[in-house]
Predict the 3D structure of the following.
Amino acid sequence: MKFAFMIERTLVILKPSALQRGLVGEVTHRFERKGLRLAGMKMMQLTDHLLDEHYAHLINKPFFQRVKDSMMAAPVIACCIEGVDAVQTVRTLAGPTNGRLAAPGTIRGDYSMSVQENIIHTSDSPENAAVELTRFFKPEEMFAYKQVAFDYLYATDEY
Ligand code: IDP
Ligand code: MG
């Protein structure tokens, strides 16, 4: 049988805005309830150097330094989240960049009034997810274990 979907891992960062507004539990809860598996989670203080790499695609934007400063204003929680099509599923749960335009029911739509202060980072492709997870996690900080509900989350042709 040819499988159409892949179990993927993606990087989620709960930004300083999530920590300062007390939303860590609420946001994490949404991923758990969806059925995604938490493979890694840690608090860390981001640095200018790490953000130069992480936000390299924004380097010529006028707001580049401001976005980096915002990401360093408090610690963040980095999460490795796994599931079938996890990259796109997590992007869909997050909603578009601008919290004011994000639909209710999405994380940004429910908790953000801002383009910059938009609660979470999510990897935008499986290729970038792999690069970003390597940047933020050591291999031993990402855990493989069987989710007890796995057989009730997917059909056998979905992974
Ligand atoms: P994404 O987080 O939805 O993938 P990106 O375009 O990758 O969006 O931008 C990364 C982050 O940079 C955004 O989440 C947001 O915090 C910030 N950002 C993006 N565009 C703007 C802008 O026009 N003004 C201020 N901040 C921005
Ligand atoms: Mg992005």
Q: What stands out?
A: Residues 58, 63, 67, 97, 115-116, 118, 121, 124 surround inosine-5'-diphosphate (ligand 1) (CB under 6 Å). The chain has one domain: 7-152.
